[in-house]
Design goal:
alpha/beta, 12 helices, Rossmann fold, single chain, six-stranded mixed sheet, four-stranded antiparallel sheet, binds adenosine-5'-diphosphate, ABC_transporter-like_ATP-bd, 342 residues, Methionine ABC transporter ATP-binding protein, AAA+_ATPase
């Protein structure tokens, strides 16, 4: 069981030209990842996500702050100390980073060789890992003969070889088609629940976060601009960056152009209601409308799952007598976050 603490971590690169300002890739980022947690780091390209991961496994030194993996401080370790700690941090990549000239089993065996494990033990461990990722029958295939999903499973088996307490995943499903992504995500979930491995994954795909992460950090311009429980952050985003991400994965209000289109087709009053798991009693909402003789059509939106809880926005057309509709709106506003679309 391994906790990962990043405390005020920064990384500066020298500026490109003579006299140019340094590039601040990571700026004073603090993330406390609990043991056994799946923590997602999201952000647009250039936000500093990959740099942050490279700092965690000591591939590059941080220029400020501290990083602890379990009880060990990564920042300030010698190359020898880093080699020892890297055995306890597995990593998987978007482009898999496999050896093309080696077979599947040789790829998985590699970190065990580096760690000096005896041959017989290596053979057993490789077989066990390949069985776990469902590639027991492809041990002697070359990686070029595998599909993307199979390659990532080899990457995962290799990352798990030395029994790490932490797995770092750098856009691990971004190069895969949706169905294969789902398989890989399911495998990551199993790794987390069966072995208690802490997972830090960076991604620009909101669906990945929604499906497997418990907590999330949103990065922008090297900084952590928002952080918390996935449901809390997604259902009530505080920054524009988060809002833009959330709108790609969750039901939202109709955008301006779409709203005009909806107005042409629907003559009644349009309202958007936010349904946050536990906060809203849906039967109460719909009863309030029925009791006042207000007709309802759902014209946009939906309800979806975020971190095992439901969240959604529904845009409704309310049809009927104006006074009754206004009365219903007052009643509904007491039950849910409600916005009348002007
Ligand atoms: P992300 O993973 O979110 O796309 P990166 O961590 O790759 O972001 O990059 C963050 C910023 O740091 C970018 O502006 C990038 O150009 C810069 N950067 C990353 N690595 C280096 C490097 N080795 N030298 C100089 N600048 C770098």
């Amino acid at each position: 069981m391994t906790r990962v603490q990043m405390i005020g971590v920064g990384k500066r690169y020298p500026g490109r030209g003579k006299g140019s300002a340094p590039i601040v890739a990571v700026d004073d980022v603090s993330i406390d990842v609990a043991s056994g947690e799946i923590h997602a780091v999201i952000g647009y390209s250039g936000a500093g996500k990959s740099t942050l991961l490279r700092l965690v496994n000591g591939l590059e030194p941080a220029t400020s702050g501290r990083i602890l993996v379990g009880d060990d401080e990564v920042t300030g370790l010698s190359e020898r100390g880093l080699r020892a700690i890297r055995g306890r941090i597995g990593m998987i990549f978007q482009q898999f980073n496999l050896f093309h000239s080696k077979t599947v089993s040789k790829n998985v065996e590699y970190p065990l060789l580096v760690a000096g494990m005896p041959a017989e033990e290596r053979r057993r461990r490789v077989a066990e890992l390949l069985d776990f990722v469902g590639l027991g029958d492809r041990a002697s295939a070359y990686t070029d003969q595998l599909s993307g999903g199979q390659k990532q499973r080899v990457g995962i088996a290799r990352a798990l070889a030395t029994n790490p307490g932490v797995l770092l995943a750098d856009e691990a499903t971004s190069a895969l088609d949706p169905e294969t992504s789902q398989e890989v995500l399911a495998l990551l979930k199993r790794i987390n629940s069966e072995f208690g491995i802490t997972i830090i994954l960076i991604t620009h795909e909101m669906d990945v976060v929604r499906e497997i992460a418990q907590r999330v950090t949103v990065m922008d311009g090297g900084r952590a601009v928002e952080q918390g429980d996935v449901f809390d952050v997604f259902s009530d985003p505080r920054t524009e960056t988060t809002r833009r991400f959330v709108s790609t994965a969750l039901p939202t209000e109709p955008e301006t152009g779409h709203l005009e289109e909806l107005r042409r087709r629907h003559r009644g009053k349009l309202v958007t209601m936010t349904f946050r798991d536990g906060d809203v009693d849906q039967p109460v909402v719909f009863r309030a409308l029925a009791e006042r003789g207000v007709g309802v059509s759902i014209v946009h939106g939906g309800i979806t799952d975020v971190g095992g809880r439901s969240f959604g926005k529904l845009t409704l057309e309310l049809i009927g007598d104006d006074a009754r509709i206004d009365d219903a709106i007052v009643a509904l506003a007491k039950e849910t976050e409600l916005e009348v679309l002007a």
